[in-house]
Amino acid sequence: MIAAARKFVLVCCCFVATGAGFAQAPAYEYRVEHDPDGIGKFYAGREIAQVMGHQGADWLERPERQQEERPDLLLQSLPLRPGEAAADIGAGTGYLSWRMAGMVGEKGRVYCVDIQQEMLDLLAKKMVEHHTTNYQAVLGTVTDTHLPTNSVDVVLLVDVYHEFDHPYEMMQSILRALKPGGRIVWVEYRAEDPDVPIKPLHKMSEAQVRKEAALLPLQWVETIEKLPRQHIFIFKKK
Prior knowledge:
This protein is α/β, with parallel strands linked by helices. It has a single domain, classed as Rossmann fold. Strands 5, 6, 7, 8, 9, 10, 11 and 12 form an eight-stranded mixed beta sheet that branches. Strands 1-2-3-4 form a four-stranded antiparallel beta sheet, with no helix packed on it. The protein starts with 7 loop residues before the first strand and ends with a strand. It contains seven helices and twelve strands. Residues about 1-20 have low confidence and may be disordered.
């Protein structure tokens, strides 16, 4: 557990979005005393969690994931149709990417974005294993997905947003890539449930997600609570 008293040492990076529909972003705050699972950087009252490195890739492919997270139910909830383009942000080993590629079919496309080349190398092997060709691996950065503008109909964020080093800038990049009226499917472990066996900084409450989404030109569509441990939030680009 972290100490109750925390010390502020620096507040910086206060900026205002230039695009229409963006609210003024809160400052990033840096604190010396913080949760060891975080990076000491705070946004909208939340400490940003450390990124899971490629060394933990086996956890993404664990057999128990099917029962613990029910990815089949998540995929059923995606507003994704044949022929559309989707982006899997923080695609990792491609656990969901190849399944999404099957949903959009040969005329569709899945952009698989990760900031670790090692993850994309593992993803490429997984795509070969599943005979998947309608995808494109994209090496992003902590501030930019490097996706083409207005290129995707649906963006999927599964247990990744809370690890964004620069959440505001990254979401601006995602929104640039999203077509008008496109959807963001935002999935996070439920912080409201103490029985979800995930470290606190790797969980988010609905209130926190809605708070941070309000800083962006996003319209909440629905919250789906059909997964054992995770929220599903669907937002539409305004």
